[in-house]
Amino acid sequence: MTFSFIFWERVILFLKRWFDMDNIFTKIRKHRIIPVIRIENAEDAVPLADALDEGGLPLAEVTFRTDAAEDAIRAVSENRPEILLGAGTVLTVENVKKAVGAGARFIVAPGFNPTVVDYCVSENIPVVPGINNPSQAEWAMERGLEVLKFFPAELSGGVKMLKALGSVYNISFIPTGGVNISNLAEYLEYDRVLAVGGTWMVKSDLISSGNFEKIIKLTREAVTASGTVVE
Questions:
Q1: Does residue 89 sit in helix, strand or coil?
Q2: The one catalytic residue among 123, 149, 154, 231
Q3: Which residues, 6 or more positions from 63, have their beta carbon under 8 angstroms from its beta carbon?
Q4: Rounded Cα distance, 86 and 60, in Å
Q5: Does 97 qualify as catalytic in the annotation?
Q6: Which of 2, 155, 169, 216 has a Cα at 20 to 30 A from 180?
Q7: At what angle do helices 69-79 and 45-55 cross, to 10 degrees?
Q8: Of all helices (H) and strands (E), which one includes residue 149?
Q9: Distance between CA atoms of residues 114 and 185, nearest Å
Q10: Among candidates 32, 62, 64, which has minimal Cα distance to 49?
């Protein structure tokens, strides 16, 4: 009885994640920008989520670059479940387990770590590994991945490199690294770009000082620059 319950529980979770995957990428494509957040104090997470939502971006990637990341994800997931939340700078399977356990709905990695990617694929967890060359793109495609992070975008050749990769591989990209208000439109004009990731509207000093009005303002400016229509 116990084995049967655990088996069906895992099947249901697997199917939920499978159906959720398309919804996640559809929502990311709709909003075109993913705020990439480094947060030092988990208490700032919910006010920050509210500021992003008010600015027109009800989604975010919380990076595992601080000890507060797991608690920040949990706080937003429990208090603002309508916010689409992912975990970034995920370097280990342990990071994945902590992030998903806290409520993250997708995983983003700076590079292509086969151990992390294969674990996510086996558990049907949406994962966006970082790549910046053809070989890495092919590793991803072998695993059935269709959305990849292009990182570091500007240092890896920017839009020209993206178009070179896109001319060969039928994949979508989320360029991150050096993307900002001045060049995001150039990236978003390329039809293989699902969205861009950036930190300029969620700088750590704005978060730690509680300057959420400034974050709302910068978020609105980013949404306007992206050409996204906020409903």
A1: coil
A2: 149
A3: 36, 37, 38, 69, 87, 88, 89
A4: 6
A5: no
A6: 169
A7: 60
A8: strand 147-150
A9: 32
A10: 62
This prediction has a pTM of 0.90
Burial tier of 54 (Cβ tally within 10 Å: 0-12, 13-18, 19+): middle
* Residues linked to residue 106 through DSSP beta bridges, in sequence order: 86
Is 61 known to be catalytic? yes
Exactly one of 61, 70, 98, 154 is catalytic; name it: 61
CA distance linking residue 39 with residue 19, whole number of Å? 30
Please tell me whether residue 190 adopts helix, strand or coil conformation: coil
Q: Count Cβ atoms within 10 A of the Cβ of residue 86 and give its class: 0-12 exposed, 13-18 middle, 19 or more buried.
A: buried
pLDDT of 155-185, one tens digit each?
Answer: 999 999 999 999 999 999 999 999 999 999 9
Residue 22 pLDDT level (bands cut at 50, 70, 90) = confident
199 close to 36: Cβ distance less than 8 angstroms: yes
> Encoding tokens for residue 168?
């060969």
